[in-house]
Amino acid sequence: MSGIRFTHIDHCSVIVTDLARSRDFYGRVLGLREIPAPKEFDFVAVWYDLGGTYVHLLQKPHPDTPSPRHFCLFTPDAQAARVYLSGLGVPFEETVKIAAADRFFVYDPDGNRIEILQWVRPYQPDTDGRFAG
């Protein structure tokens, strides 16, 4: 056992190329609340607060290579999120169903993959997990 105790993921950072386009997506489309990045930063970073967990946008000249990497945003109602995003013309893709959750993926304007997830009940690793039974 490690001598370090971790309690949660504090933040994730996402590479973006067009700050205005990304701010529109994360702020208007996803409804995240922008907060000021630290004044000590000498580079472009936009921070969003999700109630104590954060998403950081880092402006770079080129986007990340597309991959299955992603971060996940919890919602209390995945179906309502689908309807809302569809109404804005945001495409989404369904993914592998898991017993305890309703989930799907969207992509930001730079192709960063974002999972939208609703836990319909607590995940039970002893019965829901691959190594169960």
Number of strands: 8
Structural class: alpha/beta
C-alpha Rg (nearest Å) = 17 Å
Query: Which stretches of 5+ consecutive residues score pLDDT under 50?
Result: none
Total number of domains: 1
Instruction: Examine the coordinates and then state which fold CATH places here, giving the name of the CATH topology.
Output: 2,3-Dihydroxybiphenyl 1,2-Dioxygenase, domain 1
What kind of sheet is the major sheet?
4 strands, mixed
Helical content stands at 10-25%
Distance N to C terminus: 25 Å
How would you explain this protein's 3D organization?
- With 133 residues, the chain is of the alpha/beta class.
- It has a single domain (11-128), classed as 2,3-Dihydroxybiphenyl 1,2-Dioxygenase, domain 1 (Roll), CATH 3.10.180.10.
- The protein has helices spanning 19-29, 78-87, 125-128, and strands at residues 11-16, 33-35, 45-49, 54-59, 70-74, 93-94, 101-107, 113-119.
- The chain has a four-stranded mixed sheet with strand order 1-4-3-2, with helices on one face. A four-stranded mixed sheet has the order 5-8-7-6.
- The radius of gyration is 17 Å and the shape is globular.
- 11% of the residues are buried.
